[in-house]
Structures are given as structure tokens and as C-alpha cells.
Amino acid sequence: MSTFIILVHVVVCVALILIVLLQTGKGADMGVAFGGGSSRTLFGSSGASSFLSKLTTGAAVVFMLTSLSLAYLSSHRSTSSIMSDVVAPKTEQTQQAPAESPVKSEDPLASAEAPVPEPAEKE
Questions:
Q1: From the CB of residue 21, how many other CB atoms can be counted at a distance below 10 Å?
Q2: Does the global pTM surpass 0.70?
Q3: How many domains does the chain contain in total?
Q4: Which of 16, 17, 27, 91 lies in disulfide reach of 59, CB 3.0 to 4.6 Å?
Q5: What is the pLDDT of residues 21-48, one digit of tens each?
């Protein structure tokens, strides 16, 4: 069931991207004043804007429904295991405790002396 919802979700995502990219911007109405309005007759007299806006709304609704259903399915996933009858092997601690190392009370940065560069000779 979840595989089908994921497949529908991916198809709707791609369709929603393509539908939004097909729509014209708000500034495209200026082209109508100069004779560019005849190209909108493919989708009827009202143009492609109303058809694509309805298609965008429908795709957005399907996208939201699949998103909510996928979130619900992932949160209510069963935690049962197919290996419930198998007993986990016991782990043995074979490691010995490390030998005690002497603790230094000195600051490790203070004991490390960095070489001081000599000043360059002037000629």
C-alpha cells in the first residue's frame, strides 16, 4: 500500500513542477497589448491560465493528501521483527583492564617546548 502511495506522490510531484513551470507570470499580460494574445486560443477564449490554475489546485490537493498519508503510515509502522524467536548470542568480556599508567601532574602543553626561530641577519 505504501509503495503505491509513494509512486503516486512522486508522479504528482513531477506533475506539479511541470504545471507550475508552464504557467505564465503576472507580467505576461503586457504582451497582449502588442499582439501576443492570439497564442492563448489553444485552451479556449479564457486562455490557459484558468485551466492550469485548476490543474495546479488539483495536483496540490493530491500532493497534500499523499504527504499526510505517508506521514501517518511512517509513524504507525509496526515494530515486530521476523527474528523474534532467535535469542541474541551472549557476549563475553575477554578484555583485561589496562595496566595503570603513571599520572603526570604537569601540564602537557607546558612541558613541550617549541623551538624559537632565530632572527634573520641583516646584510
A1: 7
A2: no
A3: 1
A4: 16
A5: 988 776 655 555 565 555 555 555 555 5
